[in-house]
User: Fold 3-hydroxyacyl-CoA dehydrogenase from Sphingomonas prati.
Amino acid sequence: MATAPITTRRDGDILVITSNNPPVNALGAAVRTGLMAAVLEGAADADVRAVVLRCVGRTFFAGADITEFGQPPVFPLLPELVEVIEGSPKPIVAAIHGTALGGGLEVALACHYRIAADGAKLGLPEVKLGLLPGAGGTQRLPRLVGVTEALTMIVGGSPVSAERASEIGLVDRVVGADALEAAAIAYARDIIGEPLPRASERGERIAEAVRDPAVFDRFRQAHGRLLKGLRAPEACIAAVRAAVELPFADGLLRERALFQELLAGDESKAQRHYFFAERAAGKIAGLDASVVPQAIERVGIVGAGTMGGGIAMNFLSAGIPVTLVEREQAALDRGVATIGGNYARNVRSGRMSEDAAGAAMALLRPTLALADLADSDLVIEAVFEDLAVKTALFAELDRIVKPGAILASNTSYLDIDAIAAATGRPEAVLGLHFFSPANIMRLLEVVRGAATAPEVLATAMALSKRIGKIAVVARTCDGFIGNRMLKPRQEAANQLVLEGAKPWDVDRVLTAFRFPMGPFQMADLAGLDLGWDAATSQGATLREAMCEAGRRGQKNGRGFYDYDAERRGTPSPQAEAIIAAFVAKRGTVQRAVDDAEILERLLYPMVNEGARIVEEGVAQRASDIDVVWVNGYGWPIGTGGPMFWADTIGLDTVAAGLERQGVAVAPLLRRLAAEGGRFTG
Ligand code: 3HC
Assistant:
């Protein structure tokens, strides 16, 4: 008898093995033990002629149990189980619904046949955890679908649909979800007596790569973006290469060795931390299933600029009607045209069908009348970032919009409580801080005011899921989580340059740390003249001095860098001279600043601010800060986010570094450093 959570039953001469391990049928020790016993039971029972392997609940096996990684191994290990499945003398048919991911797909690859339900997704996302498929996936998948498809799935980590899986030879049949079990049993009965197709024995799909090994370099060149300077994507390529170059058994050994190496490394630890951090971010203390979110059937947006338009697209794409308000017809038309243009681009690039784009646009109701927002369930304001402007608008919205509807501000740093106080419904007011471009960036800071009601918060969280955002809850404060931590970094960057570091050295140190760009590249991109006024400029800051010299950033080809026609920047001698003159005027003597100092001065104060954010309760937990910074500001995923990174290098090191810099160490950081503690689990 198989052990729970695995059960078996007989349907004539077919053994049906069922896994029931909520929530996602992860392949933990109990599941592996049960499966091994069930497969062996099928092999030993003379009355069983074929086997169906299925799962109940939300999904087919969603992978190895990630919580077991880093723990002492419990037998049977997944690779052993997979070998026993493939080696079964009786055909095994995997019946896949939901998501067959990672080790889950590897189990399916070891089965002799795969039937997928309509809507199922199949993938090997291990690379996103800083790993590679470690139960034969890198060896079997290329043998089934060919090297190029396998590389795309393994190095990219994105799942394919059941339909696509069928096209590339990954599944044998796609059936309606309701008919899956019956279809799998019927299929199993059909193939009784046929020779057993084992992926490990198939050579024809990898034959081409054996003849043309340059396929790996071509893939690397075409998909440089996927490599991200991380170790796992390269290891994935090396493992697939082993499938082509080595006999199957040796390829498995190579895969195993690479997997173990990645598993023990810091990058995978960081990425696994991030996986759980993202899931933890959705959990709010005091908010359980008894708090019912409000229904959101129409969203109103005030402001059709870049931000408002981007925000609108999130809802339109999710099938939620939007009323978009602007003050003047020309601005409204421009906003609508931009939204239409973005959808057209999505269609051209194949990201969206023409029908879906048309359906989204049909849900848009542009208007000049604020009164048209009356029937909205949620109104989001994306107007000029000024407290007086926002409070006046909220007072008006409060009069117009139906009682009970939620009023949200997209402010990136203003006080939500002050905005809420302008209304007669502070319990229905909160911040929804989208990041630019709002239709693309996945992060959403959900800012709760002192009075925000639990149902309102629950509604924002549920809605963010519906529109595919990763929501992180913050309490109101200047800059919330993300921008509040950006500020000390910006200040440190400026100070470093005044002391003698070159802007390009500061940028280089951050990009070497694998930020997509440094603060001066970012400043040039955003425009140095943001908020600058020639009439009042007195050359008091370096930025003013740059603007006065006509250096406005990328927009006029001259900022801290000089830009060519392709917007490639090179360090600007003129910018260097402006900095030197600025410093001389202040009487400061410049000195050489080394890379290690630059990194510490930029990043330690951020961690310190993060500690204050946690101890003040602005963020619920340190890992939420990591989610904000990885998603919204390009903090390199391979280090897990600022707080996990600080844990990795040691909080005593960070505290000592801050003291050297003359920065007051946050009490939480000081305490944890003294205790040998950590910010994250
Ligand atoms: N191991 C352990 N726990 C897991 C898990 C896994 N593989 N996958 C999901 N969970 C947990 C989550 O942490 C979460 O727990 P919580 O409720 O306590 O927070 C719960 O299951 C539900 O997960 P989600 O909130 O993510 O549920 P969704 O419905 O939004 O998504 C999913 C479902 C698409 C399956 C998503 O959970 C997912 O992508 N999971 C990870 C898949 C993955 O990476 N698999 C590969 C694992 S590594 C591997 O297999 C190595 C092998 O090659 C040897």
Remarks:
- The chain has four domains: 6-264, 299-478, 501-586, 596-675.
- The radius of gyration is 28 Å.
- The chain has a mean pLDDT of 96.
